[in-house]
Amino acid sequence: MHRNQCNAVTVWVTSLDTRSERKFDLHVTVESLKNKFELITGIPPQNQRITLHNSESDPDPVAVLEDDSRPIGFYGVRDWQMLKVTDLNPSVSFTGQLTDVSQVDKFELSEDAYAQRQDTVLAYKQRNKIGRFAATEAPVPKPTPQVNVPIGSRCQVETAEEDFHKRGTVRFVGPTKFGYGEGIWVGIEYDEPIGKNDGSVQGERYFTCKPNFGVFVRPDRVEVGDFPVEDIDFSDEEM
């Protein structure tokens, strides 16, 4: 198996003021990661405490990335886990102040008084029949594109590496719930453990296979045909 097939992970990065989806190389050190996180969260590297969680709803960390010299792969970071960045000295970076409105003076207006005014957004929407005041129309369902990739067929996935064929069997074709955007995805069970999952993503199962044998790709990267199983040459330096 080629090393660079599984060297990157997509994770959620959260702090008190930020939340974003990011992709990192597993060989990047914790020290380098902190420098990247400063640009994302505004927290200086020396004030960061990075914890690894299985999900955003999991309060208990599975690991603490406390050794700056270690690569993040040392801590077993996987796709769609969460890296939480805690500010150990918020007085320096003003963490939380961007979202703290407790000190802002509030102008309060009752609902009845607001409804009587003619210079408000509500009045404008009522006059122009915008938003909830617009005439209700039945939503037009989006057509599902036709994809000629039969389930159970042998296939080969497009790859930029010369003489390296990622072959397998089509196990799923259809829309998904994970965060790659709309459209049709093809779930493939590879012949070798060069995939990213076991047929499930973010707790939703689309098909079943062994861990690291499953992958989801766009249909335009899949070529269906008579592709026999190939033996992949594992060199002594590759695991």
From TrEMBL:
Superkingdom of origin organism: Eukaryota
A UniProt-annotated Pfam family: Ubiquitin_2
Ranges where the CAP-Gly domain occurs: 176-218
Main location as per UniProt: cytoplasm
PANTHER family in UniProt: DYNACTIN 1-RELATED MICROTUBULE-BINDING, TUBULIN-FOLDING COFACTOR B
UniProt source species: Antrodiella citrinella
Gene Ontology terms, MF aspect: alpha-tubulin binding; microtubule plus-end binding
Gene3D superfamilies: CAP Gly-rich-like domain, Phosphatidylinositol 3-kinase Catalytic Subunit, Chain A, domain 1
PROSITE patterns per record: CAP_GLY_1, CAP_GLY_2
Family assignment from sequence similarity: Belongs to the TBCB family.
Keywords annotated in UniProt: Chaperone, Cytoplasm
BP-aspect Gene Ontology terms: cytoplasmic microtubule organization; post-chaperonin tubulin folding pathway; tubulin complex assembly
InterPro entries xrefs: CAP-Gly_dom_sf, CAP-Gly_domain, TBCB_Ubl, Ubiquitin-like_dom, Ubiquitin-like_domsf
Protein's cellular compartments: Cytoplasm
Record's GO cellular component terms: cell cortex; cytosol; microtubule plus-end; nucleus
Protein name (record): CAP-Gly domain-containing protein
